[in-house]
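Technical note accompanying the year-one report. For the benefit of new consortium partners, we illustrate the data format agreed upon in the data management plan: each record pairs a sequence with a structure-token string. No post-processing was applied to the example shown here.
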Amino acid sequence: MLLSIQHVSLPIEDPLLKFLIELIIILCIPLLLNKIKVPHLLGLIIAGAVIGPNGFNVLARDSSVVVTGTTGLLYIMFLAGLEIDMGDFKKNKWKSITFSLYTFIVPFVLGLIGGYYVLHFSLLTTVLFASLFSSHTLIVYPMVSKLGIAKKLAVNITVGGTMITDVLSLVVLAVVVGMSQGEVGTSFWVKLSLSMVVFALIVLLVFPIIARWFFKNVEDKISQYIFVIVMIYLAALLAELAGIEAIIGAFFAGLALNRLIPHTSSLMNRVEFVGNAIFIPFFLISVGMLIDFNAFIQSWETLGVAAVMLVASIGGKYAAAVFTKKTFGFTDDEGRLIFGMSAASAAATLASVMVGYNIILSESETGEPIRLLNEHVLNGSILLILISCTISSFVSMASAQRIADADKEETVAGAGDEDENILLAVNHEHTVEKMVNLGLLIKNQTNKDKLFALNVINEDKSESSAKNAERLLSAAVNMAAAADVTLNPITRHDNDVIAGINNVVKEQNITDLIIGLEEEKGFSSSFIYNLYNGYLHNKQINVIIYHAVQPIATIKKYAVLIPANAEHEPGFFHSLLRVWNIGKNSGAKMNFYANEKTVAILKSIAKKASIEAVFNTVTSWQEAQNAASSLEEDEGLVLLMADRGMHSYFPQMQKVPEILNKNLSNNNYILIYPFSKIDNTETEKRAVSNLDDFADIGKIIGKIFK
């Protein structure tokens, strides 16, 4: 082994040394370029060109590089589909379609003019040549997402438009290839259409069923991650079988698993971490290895073709972004972000070029092959990839950073997040993970270190022990850490469990207390006694009771019941924010049941913070209860309780525990008791009472639901 390393020849063949070199590049490039404010993805592409076969030939672009690079490309598209806000996407689907038409048609027309009238290509070659510029690759998406603006409307419609433009451009590729081989006819169109429909139905309908079953029955975290990778590759393979590119399959896989991998979960953190650390950098290096600078020095014709390609692609994307900005009234930074994200051409462009280059139409008199796309287009596409990725990186990061900074300034100015400290009262091993997952789901996005887990050691009654407390709290800390959240463990010795919890609530300024019900017991008589005579006596915090029979990420739909006049409770909006976060972070559909006045408030909130929701107006509490009693499998209940204590607005609410035990023992349910009293020092962000003026309610909505 030592001798083989001492007598190294280029390109390097030793797998250990090859992998080490690539890892050193992935480690060092971002560290160096971050200091000079240059996007590191550009550095990885250039590094690939330097060490690649057209550079110093240190590494060959062999099968190992292609496999990891392909995985990275699929990962980018999968993450785009996984992180897209489905509520916003459905709400703004027509905007995405409009953008996709702009960004497909404008570059396509410029490509037609350049290919036919400037470069004098044949009509068939011109059409394929023009389609190269209509697609784009979301190469900067991971960095934009890292800045916390992935849910911005401009980002949302760009991601949605990417799916449409890539599909359209790859359909053009399939048609042109078919025509070049004389295969286009009625049967061709029927076969292509049916295969695409079958592919979409399998991925979007069957994949979620399989994934929901898997996540409900397999708790091992490593197996869950491997399952996600299997779904990505399986969808990519099905896409290829359907006659479209694998990247479309990966994007559809992201859409299929979107609702099953909450954005705040540990699984999402693992998916993003591995992709951003390993697979995506390998893809960027593999793209760089394609760059051949000698081709531009040796041939002026290649430079001419490359110039036409750059004008059609970059100019077309810029014009499309301007049209989109004007059409929907985006800010200058949002318009630049749309241009930056859509400017990069890599995946679909490269795929189309390679397919066109490998199709030989005939031979010249000298025996040279006449290709559908010649070598000048191939080399020009490599230059297009380098320059478009460079422009995309600089423009996207500059505009995205300004948008993120503006959001931070708005938050600091007081228009953003609530103060929150969430306490998990952990006492049973099998409820710990469920409670941590709920805490991660309901918390605000910026809350990274204000989660607490408490175990009260009652030595007199031997209800717990120091060793048991350490085990439970350690498990909770590790689960939160997997989602990149710091959970603060608290062990307390007290003669009374309820007194211990209430003391910690005061000491840590807790805003929300989460208590988990044992799956088998539900609301036992002793728990009901402790609830009304203990936990609810502290009227300055939200008390959340959680009963879980399955992972919260596998719930498809919630029925949310809100009693009449609930908006007059001081803690109503604070509690509603928790409900909203469940819908936003899990992607579950929220079916609200409330009276007309409350529904009007809910609809106003939905305009400020969109989730996938249906608002049902009910005239009696019995109607709402009927909706809850009809829950099916994989559906859950969220119930906002009325005024605390045994003297509630609705005497029927005293019967809620009994009804839940009887009818919903096999369903997840969450009971939220809003706080009903505040200190004079509390800000109005946490409370609102006696608001008869709808304008005042609007102000509160604007402050809480950012």
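Partners are asked to follow this layout when depositing records. The longest helix spans residues 375-415.
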